[in-house]
Design brief:
InterPro entries: AB_hydrolase_fold, Pept_S9A_N, Peptidase_S9_cat, Peptidase_S9A, Prolyl_oligopep/macrocyclase. This is S9 family peptidase. This protein is α+β, with helices and mostly antiparallel strands and 701 residues long. Among the domains are: 292 residues, Rossmann fold (3-Layer(aba) Sandwich), CATH 3.40.50.1820; 94 residues, Lipocalin (Beta Barrel), CATH 2.40.128. The chain has 14 helices and 39 strands. The strands form nine sheets. It has an eight-stranded mixed β-sheet, sandwiched between helices. Strands 5, 6, 7, 8 and 9 form a five-stranded antiparallel β-sheet that branches. Strands 1-2-3-4 form a four-stranded antiparallel β-sheet. A hairpin with an 8-residue loop joins strand 12 and strand 13. It is globular, with a radius of gyration of 25 Å. The N and C termini lie far apart (54 Å).
Amino acid sequence: MLAMAAAMTLATSTPANAQDDGIPGPEQDPFIWLEEARSDKAMEWVKAENERTLGMLTKDPRFAQLKAEALAIFDSQDRIPFVSFRPDGLYNFWQDKQNPKGLLRRTTIESYSTEHPEWETVLDIDALAAAEGKEWVYKGSSCLPPDMNLCMIALSDGGEDATILREFDTATKTWVEDGFTLANKSQGGVSWLDKDTLLVGRDFGEGTLTESEYPFTTRLWKRGTDIVNAEEIYRGEPTDVSAGVYLLRDSEDVIHGRIAYRSVSFHDSEYYVEKDGKWLKLEIPSKASPYGIVDGHMLYSTDVDWTVDGQTFPADSIVAMDLNEWKSDPNGAAKTLVWAPGDRQTKSGGANTASSLYIGLLDNVVGKVLKIDFEDGKWVQQQVALPDNATVGIAASSDKTEQIMYTVSGFLQPTTLYYTDGSAAPAVLKTSPSYFDPEGMSVEQFEATSKDGTKIPYFLVKPAGMKMDGTTPTLMYGYGGYQISMLPSYLGATGKLWLENGGAYVLTNLRGGGEFGPKWHQTAMRENKQRTWDDFQAVGDDLVARKITSPEHLGIQGGSQGGLLVGTALTQRPDLFNAAIVAIPLFDMLRFHLIGRGASWTGEYGDPRNPEERAWIEPYSPYQRIVEGVDYPTPFLWASTADDRTHPAHARKGAAKLKALGQPYYYYEETTGGHSGGVDNEQRAQLQALQFVYLLQQLKD
């Protein structure tokens, strides 16, 4: 089983006042009060802004149609219901018009293979929310192997990343009477050691959360006891981003040890293995991590070149050690190469079945999947037979059998789901319906030259009848951070609401992302983060130079880190764009460490409390760069009150400053939804319609 450290989850924070280290406080920042997410004053401001924006955009005669089209796509009954494998069937979480908060349900592979599967409801979130008077949002579960019947269900009130946890029995479809319950919302999660024991990383009160408001202690909790009295088995440092413990299990559910981790920054960690009752530090690079157990071997993955025992494993490679040798001597076990990337290749996700390792692969931004096995004393790989020139991913796998599912899609090609039980090549199992008419549309790939000469690839999706005369309304999307890759995928609602209305769509592959491996990311972070902004603006200039569009018709869009990307473009090159969707953004980069989960991201940007690092950040921080005397394109900023990750304060303050300077803008804030936007399809459809009405007004009318 691939045993990865638990993904970090997020909570709320309270803004600080003026600092002695040059960080703006109330005297320098008149809008700092907007950092109080739910204060009466802030919510009155939000209500007024929402009324203003809705009043302007929903009156557009196109709004109702666009919303209806988006909602029809989101509620479509024939969209693919993606699943996960469990011993008692295939599980799916489903939302539609009748079930806006969603159903956790299951079926069999035989039924799933039919056109209309028969589903058994396991947990009805709408019914639960109605019964308890809460805006419950399902956030997943952690279940006890091997049966996977006892599960700790994570629920968020309104979409926050912080959750409560309750024990649920999927066999009886009931909450466990007097079961494990963590009723106080918190970041962190649990791992099942056995039926009566959990490893728990949560907010246990004062002195148990890091500066980034993640847990850094882990407790061993026995059934029937109070969590307050649970034994603490590991403690990181308050200065860590997060810290905790997880279990190293193989595909037969044998536990081979406990691994502790300290995320000393967002991209750097220390790992420890429990040996002889003590925590032994693993001697691996800070940008390497345990990858799991496959074929009797312990695997590591590294994001940097790793020289050890007279050999060098290149960045992005997978390294193996015999499991028994590793358990005996974790740092001295002999190491062998499992896989290393070729030129312009990088791994993109991974999974395993009972006997094989599978890794997703990007080869010049084209998807492939490799199957890797240990045979006759060596690692052997073969490419899985899937369509070429598409985005390919691993959708689900079973570590008890050889069952595995893959997705294949493209901008204009609806997603197709492939399946095999290991006895034959993957075959088509399900295909998503077409949500827009691609007739006459086409896709091309170009390169722009960034400020330092680096070639930056991007995809252009052309609407039917497009002329290269600079008049096409064009939406350019970007992210460029955290080693996250932007890949071609079926455009769905964007195809219906934008391409069918004559707009072109551009997807950028910026440095800071992961499209070409760890180095593509590492070359554009911290002191070099401006390279990401330069890359994005270079693509915009290239679109104009090729007469694909012109500044009058060019709009940009991004969310979270992508919202920061759009904010830097808006303030550094206001001449190049006429629309900017700044979604759930980072925006005030001199106070980002004090807002939401910002302190965890200093590894990506630097720490503004450090004068040297603040000097990297201050020149591009969008909030500070909004100044008098500049004619900015009218942006659309949106956020969520329940976003406890980036926090709505960033978007709020950007809008408030634009308003104070008399600049035109739109601002909209959902009161639920969290960092992902809407919590149900109705909210998601409204957000889509608002944004595309805005784009049509700015770029086409």
